[in-house]
User: Fold D-2-hydroxyglutarate dehydrogenase from Chloropicon roscoffensis.
Amino acid sequence: MSARGSVASLARRCLATTARPVVRGDFSEITAGDLETFTSILGDPKHVVTDADDLLPFNRDWMNKYEGKSRLALRPKTTEEVSRIMRHCSERNLAVVPQGGNTGLVGGSVPVFDEVVVSMARMDEIRSIDPLAGVMVCQAGCILQHLDETLAREGLMMPLDLGAKGSCHIGGNISTNAGGIRYLRYGSLHGSVLGLEVVLASGEILDVLKPLRKDTTGYDLKQLFIGAEGTLGLVTAAAIHCPPRPKAKNATFLSCDSFPRVLETFRRAKADLGEILSAFEFLDKESLDLATRTFADVKNPLEGSSDGFYVLIETSGSDEAHDAEKLQSFLESSLEAGAITNGAVAQDVTQFRAFWRVREGVPEALNTHGAMYKYDLSVPQAQMYDLVEETRDRVGGMAYTVGYGHLGDGNLHLNCVADAYSDELSSRIEPFVYERTAELGGSVSAEHGLGQMKASCIGYTKSDSAVEMMKLVKRTFDPKGILNPYKVLPSSN
Ligand code: FAD
Ligand code: 2HG
Ligand code: ZN
Assistant:
């Protein structure tokens, strides 16, 4: 049996970091002349942010865990402006952090020292939608949810969805290679992104934006920027393949009395639901308890259930009756076989949203605690929960440990929350979590990226030769190392 920590009390926010200490690179500091140049590029001083209070949201991340000391944030509107900004930064040797919606969870979107923040928030125009081809071309600063709402009017949808959809940008999604809840069905952005427009460190505009489904002319350069976390260039526009919006959607919330039963339910869902399966999420009892205790609007759809594990399955298809029938038969056989102990099917849109609110409430509930040790791991599904139990055993009562995530994709979200960060707690978790993940043949970053949190951890997943090759790519695209320094690669400064 694993030891279970008590829920840490809602604590004051503690600005602490588990990142490795780094030394400021040999970059220039901002001068009055630089400010004049940027103001002339952007045409209006209000897009050149220098006031300390106004800079705070650019300097601090969503978790309040990482905080930089930038003295300048720039808010361009066009690709040409981004290009001129980068040309100047390159000439002056000024370090830059590209910033989207600033919802990243690894400290990648905020400065470490005094890097210039280039916010993409004003670059929010949709350039075109081709309903027949299912292709949208838009600027990088478009908010994911707005894109999805706009596509809905054309009978299309965004191929990705995540809890931060109301704030995150498509450029940020591409730069982190975000996964989310629809990955199981629609796959990686490496497939959905058809083209990109990117401003390189030198200010050069790389145009590989052609919105073609098929194109085998030479090297597929756009792939390098998907998941590069702003270290190779600033994504300014993207062409995305957008699938048809499903006519029928269902959600079911299930309980299982053990993790092997969760796996059995997944096996059955794939076999019985087939092409209509669009999400398979799991959460342990600790995650569910935390979310329901923290937020009044989060309710356990299986009130009174005390099982250890919960599963949220979504189906998306084109025929309501056919999908409902399939779901019903899957539920009956799963119950009969003992894979699940109980279940509820959403009867309307309100219930559908309430089920998803439970799942999406977990990261928000975790974020109400003073210290959050957050791990986003790819591990073989069979061993996924062992890692949670082993970590829980190690931290004992020092933290409250939860495991949940995108089980369908083998993506575990392991979180330990406590009142405050401490060396003792850190050393109980790290490097254990990374070492175990490596032993299991997994990845220390499934979908959040490496950022500053894990810049020294890439070696747990990638070979030395792969890391050396990545450094070569970095030097080729950004010889001065001005783009998002101290992130992704070890000793990049
Ligand atoms: P930011 O946080 O601003 O930036 C992220 C990284 O991308 C940084 O390194 C930044 O420098 C770089 N960047 C941003 N824009 C650009 C650009 N235009 N060009 C070049 N580089 C750029 N992530 C998932 O994968 N799946 C989830 O299910 C998920 N759920 C989440 C739920 C919540 C509640 C929260 C807070 C976060 C969640 N995330 C999830 C993490 C986060 O939302 C994603 O990483 C998202 O893709 C980041 O987008 P953003 O616009 O906020 O980027
Ligand atoms: C999710 O799937 C996000 O909810 C956040 O990726 C995960 O907070 C986390 O650990
Ligand atoms: Zn996730």
